[in-house]
Amino acid sequence: MRYSDFQGERISLLGFGAMRLPLLGDGSGKVDEAQTEKMVDYALDNGVNYFDTAYPYHNGESELILGRCLKKHPRESFLLASKYPGHQVSETYDPAAVFERQLQKCGVEYFDFYLLHNVCENSLPTYLDP
């Protein structure tokens, strides 16, 4: 695996995105967690250390599933990114509470990277100070 250095972090050039995980074959639309776990293990075993998820992926299940799949691996063996869903939350949402819930769903104490999700003309006001 090839790596890049970003502000002191050694990041694999190939990352694992959890936006489109394998689904069960029963038509339920649910994620095949066993297959996802095999994929996560394979990625880590082959040098991938960057994992990316977000609040809305798989109807909110991606963070939970990726967190469970990564749980058995030492926290220092992977870099985890998630995203603030400003385009999905109302003005009454508390950003700190959303962030804490995402940490809980992923089963980690911190994110290595936390991004603003889907910043575009329609969502820009959500991200700007009033």
TrEMBL record:
One Pfam family hit: Aldo_ket_red
Chain ranges of the NADP-dependent oxidoreductase domain: 14-120
UniProt cross-references to SUPFAM superfamilies, sorted A to Z: NAD(P)-linked oxidoreductase
Signal peptide: none
Protein name: Aldo/keto reductase
Lineage: Bacteria, Bacillati, Bacillota, Clostridia, Candidatus Alectryocaccomicrobium
